[in-house]
Design brief:
With 430 residues, the chain is α/β, with parallel strands linked by helices. Helices cover 43% and strands 14% of the residues. It is built from 16 helices and 14 strands. Helix 16 (415-420) links the parallel strand 13 and strand 14 (424-426). Helix 9 (199-230) crosses helix 12.
Length: 430
Amino acid sequence: MNICIIGTGYVGLPTGVGFAELGNKVTCVDLIEEKIAALKAGRITLFEDGLEELFRKNAENGSLRFTTRLGEGVSNAEIVIIAVGTPPHPETKEADMRYISAAAAQVAEHLSGYTVVAIKSTVPIGAGDDAEQLIREKNPAADFDLISMPEFLREGFAVHDFFNPDRVVIGANNGRARKIVDALYDTYKQKPQILYTSRRSAELIKYASNAFLAVKIHYINEIANLCEKVGANVYEVARGMGLDSRIGAKFLSPGPGYGGSCFPKDTNALAFIAKQANVDLSIAQAAIKGNGERKIEMANRITAALKGVKDPVVAVLGLAFKGGTDDVRESPAIEIVSELLKRGLRIRAHDPEAINSAKAVLGDRIEYAQDAYGAAKEADLLAVLTEWEEFKSISLKELRMRTKIIVDLRKVFDKQIAIADGFTYIGIGE
């Protein structure tokens, strides 16, 4: 099948590479010339575990190509997938639809023959209606159907999730488009479960899912705070909760709050949609408020641990919003570091993949280290802010710190081992 992907970010690129690996001919389009030039030259532009190998393989065999000219991808495509950003408005927090509208308008100019146009970006309810109307106004003769195809790729696990989806949700208002979608997913070794809904329901499923997970994260963080006050252990409590099949164990890990390109943006956008519809989403609103306060609470925890230390140096492990990605958008680590900088603390940080991304945000306000040992050298406190798996293999005995304090916000280190190695250990929910 000929597929066109518009947008080569954390959704578009893994999606394009994945469909190429399944035997399709994929053209990825992006207006950023530098990005397309890099991809054409064989240089991947983002980090996702397992993505680079598949990218190189399919670019080299001709299944995957890149262009800045949208017409090259759309004119021969059976399905066009729009995967551009919908960033939050700086004031209202509603989803900014300018890139969706621009993509739809340009797609309209190049449609040839029957085409399914799929919006994979996270968009407000009714955005599909608006995009369909725009295309019909721009090209009344176009033969197409517009569907919603929300993405559920976890950053850091996008390749795995593409090939092993929990479900595929398709908002299609007629059977003609469904035939194309069925044929597309027939290329999977084992066809995933496809849930067909109305277009508006599909758009809301994405928002409702992400907001629910954000609420779950915020809830366990509140329970962690309670555990600290009453002498319980949040990890034991979370395990006991997670064994209930109605609750499940996922997203019950306490930490410094949720971040990334989806949860903060989508909870705020959903709250805006609800406000416009005069519906009270009190639970989501509480999660939004509490998540913002969580970063300050964690910064306070680090500052309190340094009481009495003169001219302290803080070593930070992790700058990405989560392990497995170089994405620092809405990263709790970045927000905590920024708060510590306001308080005059000196920061030296290490992240396996996100240093360049962090430099674009923090610049030279902090120091950067090539490894954890370099970050910790002569530091007074080691703050673990991102849950990179490789941090678990760090030898605490080999850290040459001036003052041996660990504030572990991701449960990376074993508390008893840290204490045995002479550290003051401060965690969450214990």
